[in-house]
């Protein structure tokens, strides 16, 4: 008999909410099958999500709450811990030099980086993020390559087979990437497979990889793991990281840089 793969509760809940975002309703049996858990566990997950106001329980399952689109919206993600994200981006910008070739992904922390690089000469930026392009479009000293493909209106970014094919033609000396979660055991993770796929390609095609994320995402796993921890050269986060996590990461030879 095949052994069940354990999925962490927070990851299961994210999977449930993503499914509700698409289909409006879900049954206990759907949850049990999707998350590879018992119906008792599935029922408990739904009950906990209802207590958080994120869905409405029904007989045998649940239906979508009005909060779900807000939860997954780009604007809400960008607003969460916004001041920390700006300071993380400000610190990351100190590693950028004239003539650099940069990958910048569509993460809501990384997007702030664009504000701090406009004074550099002869920069090349390769991105799939429309907000990054919008920020840099007025600066002729920065050459911007927008990766085409299928537009995700919610994330304000391009994804898909065309994006990945074009991406493979580029190389950069530095990649600035976001993550919905990062852990020593499972590496970098995303809330969406297609987002993780593009970010992994950027990491693999760059000489140095900088991961920008606030401390709330450290030692957390999101929906899908897309890269091992050893792809990370620098982890840039805020000063609120726990001392234990800081010690663990530095012990594992991860260069952790903290905002002031």
Descriptive account of the structure:
Helix content is 37%, strand content 25%. It has 260 residues and is of the alpha/beta class. It has a 7-stranded parallel sheet with strand order 6-5-4-9-12-14-15, sandwiched between helices. Helix 2 packs across helix 3. It has 2 domains: 64 residues, Orthogonal Bundle (Arc Repressor Mutant, subunit A); 184 residues, Rossmann fold.
Morphology call:
globular
Gap from first CA to last CA: 52 Å
Order of helices and strands: HEHHEEHHHEEHEEEHEEEHEEEHE
| Largest pleated sheet | 7 strands, parallel
The total of beta strands comes to: 15
Strand % is 15-25%
Here the CATH topology of the largest domain equals Rossmann fold
Summing up helix and strand content along with how strands pair, one would put the structural category as alpha/beta
The whole-angstrom Rg is: 19 Å
* Domains (count): 2
Looking at the overall shape, the CATH architecture of the largest domain is 3-Layer(aba) Sandwich
Sheet with the most strands: spatial strand order? 6-5-4-9-12-14-15
- Spans of at least 5 consecutive residues whose pLDDT stays below 50 are none
Please give the share of residues in helix.
25-40%
What's the mean pLDDT score?
90
CATH class of the largest domain, named Alpha Beta
Quaternary state reads single chain
């Amino acid at each position: 008999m095949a052994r069940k793969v354990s999925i962490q509760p927070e990851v299961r809940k994210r999977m449930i909410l993503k499914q509700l975002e698409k289909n409006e309703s879900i049954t206990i049996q759907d949850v049990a099958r999707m998350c590879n858990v018992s119906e008792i566990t599935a029922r408990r997950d739904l009950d906990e999500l209802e207590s958080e106001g994120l869905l409405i329980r029904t007989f045998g399952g649940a239906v979508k709450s009005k909060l779900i689109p807000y939860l997954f919206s780009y604007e809400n993600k960008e607003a969460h811990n916004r001041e920390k994200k700006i300071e993380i981006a400000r610190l990351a910008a100190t590693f950028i030099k004239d003539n650099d070739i940069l990958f910048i992904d569509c993460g809501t922390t990384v997007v702030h980086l664009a504000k701090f690089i406009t004074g550099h000469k002869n920069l090349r930026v390769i991105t799939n993020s429309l907000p990054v392009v919008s920020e840099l479009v007025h600066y002729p000293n920065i050459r911007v390559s927008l990766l085409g493909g299928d537009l995700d209106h919610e994330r304000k970014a391009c994804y898909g087979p065309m994006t990945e094919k074009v991406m493979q033609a580029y190389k950069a000396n530095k990649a600035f990437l976001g993550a919905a979660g990062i852990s020593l055991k499972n590496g970098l993770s995303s809330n969406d497979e297609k987002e993780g796929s593009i970010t992994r390609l950027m990491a693999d095609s760059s000489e140095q990889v900088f991961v920008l994320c606030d401390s709330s995402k450290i030692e957390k796993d999101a929906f899908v793991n897309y890269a091992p921890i050893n792809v990370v050269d620098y982890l840039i986060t805020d000063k609120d990281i726990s001392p234990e996590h800081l010690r663990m990461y530095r012990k594992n030879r991860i260069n952790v840089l903290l905002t002031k």
